[in-house]
Amino acid sequence: MEIPDNLLCLFNAEIVEEDGSYIIEVPDQEVAFGDVKVGEVYRAALLGPGAEANTDTQREHDEPTPPVETGETRTVDIEGTGEQGDGIARVERGYVVIVPDTEKGERVTIEITDVKETVAFADVLEREEYYL
Fold first, then answer.
1. Strand order through the sheet with 119-127
2. Which of 22, 46, 106, 120 has a CA between 20 and 30 Å from the CA of residue 13?
3. CB atoms within 10 A of CB 56
4. Which pTM does this prediction carry?
5. Could you read off the pLDDT of 103-113 as tens digits, one per residue?
């Protein structure tokens, strides 16, 4: 099966009938950490029972794997700052990367130093000139 590049999330769900309609529940983490927004309209593709998506974004428990790996380098834009003052960047599926000693609006090349299920940490390798 071919998975398109613009796939926002992949999860298992049960179809529930309610008042003459059928409902698919989207996991909280897809709204909190992913690209899915409340109130927007999306297309859903359904696979039959027992069907397996042949993709490396699916784990044993159908949770997506982090889109970054330790040691990987990337150029990212710092979108905001966290409570501790560290910069926050987002990569695929809205996955959060915490980058200390950065400011909102900076574009930096980073090296991923630690990867967790919902967040990664990185060090700055190079700063680009402000481009705002």
1. 73-77, 107-115, 119-127, 96-99, 87-90, 80-81
2. 120
3. 9
4. 0.53
5. 999 999 999 99
